[in-house]
Amino acid sequence: MSVPIEPVAQLLSVALDSSVLLGGSGPLDSSVLLGGSGPLDSSVLLGGSGPLDLPFREGYVWSIIYVSLYVSLTAVTLSTLFSVPVAVLLGFAEFPGKGFVKSVINTGMGFPSVVVGLVVLFAVSNQGPLGALELIFTTEAMIMSQFVLATPPITAITLASVSGVDDGVRDAARALGGTRLDTALVVLKEARYGIATAILAGFGRAISEVGSVLIVGGNITSADGISKTRTLTTAIQLEARQGQYGTAMILGAVLVALVLTVNAVVVHFGDSGVTR
Amino acid sequence: MLRATGVSKSFGGERVFDDLSVEVDSGEVLGVIGPSGVGKTTLLRTLALSLEPDAGTVALGGTDAWAAEEADRLALRRRVGMVFQEASLFDASVGRNVEYGLRVRSPWADRIAASLGLTGTPDAVRESLAVVGLTEKANQHADSLSGGEAQRVSFARALAYDPDVLLLDEPTSDLDPRNTAVIEEAIEEARARGIGVVVATHDMHQAERVADRVAVLLDDGITEVGPTEVIFENPSDERTRKFISGELVY
């Protein structure tokens, strides 16, 4: 397998040369990491003009928030579009081996993320089946790995929710003239809180993921310090490894705030649709 | 109108009924009485075209439903309404519940508009709720209703799309006398509209009150069908007589 040299060099540099952490004297330009002007320089504000001085290059935090959300929301959206119909079909169908299929899906919830990252890395590497697409160390590869990680919990929890809908509701929908599709839509609506929980669980798994996105994404920033494949989690991991615990805590708080915001939005929309 | 001829149904090798025939005409109320567990619900599901019989035919308006194409069978099924023993209302407002049968019969564009709240409450919904005396509850959530009110909404839900036949499975078994009276008045209203009604009940007094004809379903099938007063006052079948008089205890 051959991989692009530059991202690998960045990773190796981070691992081997601590001089690049705070200044620009290492083998990598300081803009690759935290900024070259020192952790408290006023020119490196969050967003450039906020009231609080933070040890980040202008635009850096916003860019990793953007990459984190873009990758996780895209992966979870794709996974939801795949998982929910599959769960509904499984919930409605009766066939030999259904219990085994459920067990496989449940087992998938415990997949080690680094293993998923390795498999996706092999798939998108130059010699892999998707090598021609040149996806390695891209957000698309990160989306692929998060899709694989988010799909089992979304499918399993959705399946449990759909299976928990009262048979009487299905019978009523059918007796009132509903087709199979109409009945499925009724069941989906009845199970919507469980499905929302499933999506939130998938989003939680995706946004908090470190191992696989580090492997397939490479934790890369551009020369001007803007994230290309760096997410909040990989940035936190990097900061902590460099001993920048304060910075890591700030990024951690941003991550927690993001997750809380997404949860609040989903819960709000879930509650607002009760009577329709 | 709706006629089952020689129908049989088994589950897992266990026979529920065999070679059973029954029919209901427009504007007629047929009571199906029998002890619990004898197969009344299975018979009603068979009549509702939800269950395919193992043998025999179920025809609505002369069309054999199970010999028809699926699309034609769906069209036939949509001419039948059914109310279950449990109300099983959807997690939505009362109005939306009653509207459901109308909605699934509408084009998708209209359905989407209704889902977005762009359309008002159809007249048929208001009229059906008026029949069961719950017009003022249209905007309440179904969870806020009492058991009796929920069952009345379930009745209105089946009545709203003006079915040719209405099948009621123990519709008042869990209700108090007041709600029972409302349901029985609604049955009378359905009959007045020309709807054929089948009421499965173990309450013989209710069958005597609401039915024009009564079919007695015992272990080995329908023992007797006839005008209500004949079945209750002068049954020709000995088992029917014993069941009516309470001598045949299950």
From TrEMBL, chain B:
The keyword Amino-acid biosynthesis does not apply. SUPFAM superfamilies: P-loop containing nucleoside triphosphate hydrolases. Keywords: ATP-binding, Cell membrane, Membrane, Nucleotide-binding, Transport. GO terms for molecular function: ATP binding; ATP hydrolysis activity; phosphate transmembrane transporter activity. PROSITE patterns: ABC_TRANSPORTER_1, ABC_TRANSPORTER_2. InterPro entries: AAA+_ATPase, ABC_transporter-like_ATP-bd, ABC_transporter-like_CS, P-loop_NTPase, PstB-like. One of its GO terms (cellular component) is membrane. Residues 2-244 form the ABC transporter domain. Pfam families: ABC_tran. One of its GO terms (biological process) is phosphate ion transmembrane transport. The keyword Hydrolase does not apply. Gene3D superfamilies: P-loop containing nucleotide triphosphate hydrolases (3.40.50.300). This is ABC transporter. It comes from Halorubrum saccharovorum DSM 1137.
